[in-house]
Amino acid sequence: MKQKIHVRVNGQAHVFDVEPWDTLIEVLRENLKLVKTKEGCSVGECGSCAVIMNKKSVNSCLVLALDADGKDILTAEGLAQDVEYHPFNEALIQQSSMRVSFDPPGSKAQQEFFTFCHVCPGHCSVKATLEDGKVVDITPDKDSGLPNELCPVKKGRFSIPEVLNHPDRLKYPLKRVGFRGEGKWERISWDEALDTTAEKLLLLKEKYGAESVAFGLGEPKGLEFAFAQRLASVFGTPNVVTPGWCCGIPSGMASALTYGWNCVPDEEYPTRLMVLWAVNNNHTSGGVRRETMERAVDNGARLIVVDPRKIDMASIADLWIRLRPNSDGALAMGLLKVIFEEKLYDAEFVSDWCTGVDLLEEELKTFSLQDVEELTWVPKKTIREFARIYATTRPATIQWGNALDTSAIAFPSAKAIAILRAITGNLNIPGGDVFLTPAPFLRPGKFFLLSKFPRNREKSVGGDFKLALRSAFVPPHAFVNSVLNGEPYRIQAGIFLLTNPILSYPDSKRTYEAFMKLEFVVVSELFMTPTAALADILLPAAWGMEHEELGYWPGWYEEIRTYPKLVDPPGEAWADTRWLNELAKRLGLEKYFWENDEEALDEWLKPSGFTYEDMKRKRVLHSKREYNAHDYRTPTGKVEIYSKNAAEFGYSPMPYWKEVSSLPGLTDEYPLLMTNAKEDVYMLTGYKHVASLRNMKPEPIVEMHPDTAGKMGLKEGEMINIETKKGKIVQRLALDDTLDPRVIVTSFGWWFPEDRSGVFGWDKSNINVLTRSEPPYDPGIGTVDLRGIPCKVYPA
Amino acid sequence: MRLPHFLYYAPATLEEACSLLAKHGTESMPLAGGTDLLVKMKHRKIVPKVVVDLKHVSGLHAISYDQDEGLRVGALATIQSLKDSIVLKSNCKMLAAAAGVESSVQIRNLATIGGNIANASPASDAPLALIALGASVALERSGSSRRVLLEEFYIGPGKTVLEPGEIIREVYIPPLPPRSGGAYLKHALRRTDIAIVSVAVFVKLDEDACQDIRIALGSVAPTAFRAKKAERVLRNTNITAVLAEEAAQAAMEESRPIDDIRGHAEYRAKTVFELTKRAIMEAVQDASLGGI
Question: By the number of CB atoms within 10 A of the CB, which of A466, A496, B26, B191 ranks highest?
Answer without folding.
Answer: A496
